[in-house]
Amino acid sequence: MNNNRTHIVLFTLAVLVSACVKEPNKEVVSNPVPITSNPTPYQLIIPSLFAQYINPPVIPVDNPLTVEGIALGRKLFFDPILSGNGTQSCASCHSPQLAFAENSAFSTGIDGLQGNRSAMPLFNMAWNWNNKFFWDGRANSIEAQALGPVVNPIEMHNTWQNAVASLQNDLTYPSLFMAAFKTNIIDSNLVVKAIAQFERTLISGNSRFDQYLNGQISLTPQEIDGFNVFMTETRGDCFHCHGNAANPLWTDNLFHNNGLDATFSDNGLGSVTGNAADNGKFKTPSLRNLAYTAPYMHDGRFATLDEVINHYSEGLQNSPTISPLLKYIGQGGVQLTASDKASLKAFLLSLSDSSFVNNPNFQQP
Asked: Which of 11, 61, 147, 254 could pair covalently with 231 via S-S, beta carbons 3.0-4.6 A apart?
């Protein structure tokens, strides 16, 4: 085990579903009540590896975390009150038991309509320092990411005016907003601020691999070998986009064309930037919690982790915007052996965090 730990250290040294949203023209206003006590500041509990290796989380100065704001955001996240017909909540497509993702390729909205992208899992969002969310990076903050689904016609299909009216007329919400933001006048800005506060608390940092790095457990020889496959350019060559043991996020939070298609039916980042050089590029997802987040890729095309590994091994498709990091594109991939594939899968699954999906603080209140 000591040799394996040393090997890991050596390698370590080497190396979010909606369109733009119109703001409401007018929202319901009620008479303010006197401001009471201030909200209680909340301090995130940072996993030790995060504190050791990466920069602090992004907390906007205009939306500090508070106990009352997080509690309100959690209630809103699970409450179907924001949808047009009162049947769908954020959690409908982002289930805690699925690492806040969904087990279908495409989400189904309140009218039975489906989009063309998979719901991204939600965790460790506070460490997305470039503030580009969704598969195509179109939202520039967690707050902006939370704004769209309510009015998206194929998701919650509501208006912010109606959503805010529902909250304003509810028996409990005005007082909860008063506690969180010192006002009972609800608007879309405060709604998404509360949801974003809750989402910033969704931290996953206690996988088997984390525990191994912290010296708490041992990994199996196959899991160790899988990490070496992951970190070796002539084997898995995964670390360029997904990081290493010193990057507990397991994503670079950047956008790449990872060789899914020779031609694109979805331009991804290119549809946002308008730059043809960005066509076919999508956000690198974290490799944490893969045990819960199938199907995989932006369009959920791969039902299993084996299919994902086979793609990078021998299924790459070349195109003008292919990532230069895919050095083996000329031969269709890295050509892993069956043993390498099995080891790589074992390592990847060691990044899943059961304590995250079962955290009582992240369940429906």
From this structure: 11
Question: What is the arithmetic mean of pLDDT over 207-214?
Answer: 98
Which residues is 209 bridged to in the sheet?
A: none
How many whole angstroms separate alpha carbon 277 and alpha carbon 320? 8
pLDDT of 24 reads: 36
pTM equals 0.89
Query: What are the backbone angles phi and psi of residue 68, rounded to the nearest 5°?
Result: -70, -35
List pLDDT tens digits, range 288-330: 999 999 999 999 999 999 999 999 999 999 999 999 999 999 9
Helix spans in the chain (H): 2-14, 48-53, 67-78, 142-151, 160-168, 173-181, 188-200, 208-213, 221-231, 239-242, 269-273, 305-314, 338-349, 354-357
The alpha-carbon radius of gyration of the chain (Å, integer) is: 21
SS3 39: coil
For residue 57, the tally of other CB atoms under 10 A from its CB is: 17
Instruction: Quote the CA–CA distance of 100 and 118 in Å, as a whole number.
Output: 12
